[in-house]
Amino acid sequence: MASIQVLTQELINQIAAGEVIERPASVVKELVENSLDAEASSISLEVSGAGTDVIRIVDNGSGMDEHELFLAIKRHATSKITCFDDLQAIRTLGFRGEALPSILSVGRATVSSRKASTSQGHYIQIDAGTLIDHGIRGMPEGTIVEVRDLFFNTPARKKFLKTSATEQRAIIDVVSRAAISFWAVRFSLVMNGRTVMNLPETDSLKDRAWSVLGKQLKNQYREFFQERPGITIHGMVGLPAEARPTRAGIYTYVNSRSVKDYILTSAIIDGYKGMLMKNKYPVAVLFVEIDPSDIDVNVHPTKAEVRFKHPSAVFGIIASTVSQAVSPQKHDLYEEERERGEGPLQVREDRESQYEPHVWTPSQEGFPFSDAGVADIEEDFYSSKKIIGTLFSTYILLQDTDFFYILDQHAAHERIMYEKLKVNIKEAETRSQVLLNPILLDLSTPEYAAFEEITEPLQALGIECSPFGDRTIAIRSVPPLLTDANIQSILLDLLHSVISGSLNSTDHFDGMIARIACHRSITSGSRLADEEIRALLGDLDRAENSKTCPHGRPLFKKIGKAEIERWIGRRP
Ligand code: ADP
Ligand code: MG
Predict the structure, then answer these.
(1) Per the domain annotation, does 572 fall within a domain?
(2) For residue 40, which of 59, 254, 326, 410 is within the disulfide window of CB 3.0 to 4.6 Å?
(3) Could you tell me the CATH number of the domain that includes residue 183?
(4) Ligand 1 within 6 A of 98 CB?
C-alpha cells in the first residue's frame, strides 16, 4: 500500500463533483439555484448537445465583485451561512459552498459577474479546476456562467450518461421544477438552437403551471391551502380524470426548494384514496412552508431530499387537505377511516410496498421456466387444460394430470394483445386509419420533448401525429386495432413511459407495443366467463411466445401434485 497523504484540492473537488454533479442536469440545477439565490428576476439558459458541449446561464441577479468571484470558486466558500445555527434556518437554495468548485473541476468554464454598484464586470476562466485566465469585461449586471466540455477529464462519468435525449429531458425537468416554484422569475431554455421553454414572469402559480404542465389542466384542478402551527401547505391538484401513469406530474417543494420526497408524494397519493385507478398517479403541485428548524435539508449532497422532524404530522395534513380538495364528499369518509387508525397518521416503514409496483426479477423464486425442460411448450399447452375457475377475479386456475397452474389473466391478455399488435403492424394491408377529425392534445414541456423523441417510432406503429402550434399535437391516424381505443390516453401513457425512463430509445418500438398492449388489456379484477377463458387459452396457444408477458414476467405458476401433497403433509 502507498504511503498516506492528503489529497490535492483538485482531487477533492473531483470527488465532491462525483456526488453533486452526476449529469448535465445537475450542473443546470446548481447554476439555476445560484441565480435564484442571487435574486435574479430573469434566467436564460442555453444548452447544446446533451449538455456536455455547452451549458450557459445568464442571470440578472446581485452579481459578484472580483474578490467575491475568486472566493466563490473556492471549496466551502458560501455567502449563505456563517455558523451552525444558520444551517438550522436555511432560506436559500444553496449553502454547502461546493457546487461551483465541483462544476469547475469537471469541465472548462468561464464565470463572469458584475455587481450592481460597479461599472464593469470580471471574469475568470478555469479548466478542470485550474485557473487559466482572469480579467475585466463589459457586461450587464448579473452573472454569466458558461461550462463547456463537461466531464472531459472524467471519462468514466461521461460514459455513464444516457442518450442525449434523456439528458436533455432531465435538464427540462430540472428547469420545469424550478420554474413552477419561482413563477415571478422569467425563464428561458434554448436547446441546440431551439427555444424549448419561454416563460414570462407571472404573478400566479396557476399561470406558470399552465405553461409548464400543459393547458389541458386548466379546468381540471383544485387549489388548496391549509395552515397549522409551524406549517403551511398550498398548491393545486389535478382531478382524478387527469391522472398519469407515472409520478412525473407530482411536483413537491419544501420552502421553495424542489425535493423528491417520499413522504410528500405518498401523502398526495393518499389524499386520492379510492379515486385513482391502479397504477395511476395524480398531477399535483405542493408547496410546504415549514419552520426551517423542523427539517434537515443537509441530508443529501444534491439537497434533493429533506428530513422532517415530524413526518407523520406532515403526512397527515397533506393527505387530509388533498383529499378535501379533490373530493369534499369522500373526505368525510376518509377522516372517519383515519380516526379508526388506518389512516395516514402512522407512516409505516413499509409504506413503500403499498405504492411501489411489484417488480419481478428472473432470479425470483417461482419462475416456471427456470428449468430447461419446460422451455418449449406444446401447441395446445393451454387449451388442453381443464379450467377449474378464477381466483380473486385475477387468476385463472387450470389443471392437468399432475399439475396445477395459476395463470395471470392480465399478463396473458397483454401477451396476446402484444402479438396481435405486432402482426397488425407488419401486415401491409392493415394500414393505419386516418381520423376524420384529428384529435388535439395539449402537452406539457416534458411531454412535448418526449413526443419529439418518439415521433418516428409512433409513425411506424401507425400512430401519426403532427405538431399543431404551441406544444399541441394533432393525432391524425391510428392503427386499426386502436380505432376504438382512447388514443389520447395511450399516447400520454407512452410519453410518460419515455419521461420516466421505463421506455428507452433502444427498444422504443417493442417497448411501445408492450405499453400499448398493457394499456389495452383486460385488467386484473375483471371476472371472465368460461367462454372468454377458453378463447384466451386458445389465443395463448397461437401466440408466438406464450410463456411470459411482454415485460418478461412469467404468465403462470406451475405447482406439482407432489408439492401439494407435501404442503398438506401426505408426503414427507
Ligand atoms: P452555495 O450556493 O452553496 O453557497 P456555490 O458553490 O453554488 O455554493 O456558490 C458559491 C457562492 O458563489 C455563493 O454562495 C454565492 O455567494 C456566489 N454565487 C454563485 N453563483 C452566483 C450567481 N449566479 N450570482 C451571484 N452570486 C453567485
Ligand atoms: Mg449553490
Answers:
(1) no
(2) 59
(3) 3.30.565.10
(4) yes
Comparing CA positions, the residue from 316, 329, 348, 228 lying closest to residue 275 is 329
Find the domain containing 318 and state its range.
205-339
pLDDT in tens, 391-416: 988 899 999 988 999 999 888 888 88
Strands 186-191 and 42-48: parallel
For the stretch 175-219, pLDDT in tens is 999 999 999 999 999 999 999 999 999 999 999 998 888 877 788
Residue 424: HSE in the Cβ half-sphere, 13 Å Cα cutoff? 20
Render pLDDT for 10-28 as a digit per residue (tens, 0 to 9).
777 777 666 678 899 999 9
Determine, yes or no, domain membership for 285.
yes
Q: Residue 290 in contact with residue 261, Cβ under 8 Å?
A: no
- What is the number of structural domains in the chain? 3
pTM score, two decimals? 0.69
Closest ligand, as measured to the CA of 35: 1
C-alpha cell at 392: 380473486
Q: Is 482 in the pocket of ligand 1 (CB under 6 A)?
A: no
Please tell me whether residues 116 and 228 are part of one structural domain.
no
Above 60 in pLDDT, residue 339? Answer: no
Same domain membership, residue 301 and residue 226: yes
Nearest partner of 451 among 498, 506, 509, judged by Cα: 498
Q: Is 96 in the pocket of ligand 1 (CB under 6 A)?
A: yes
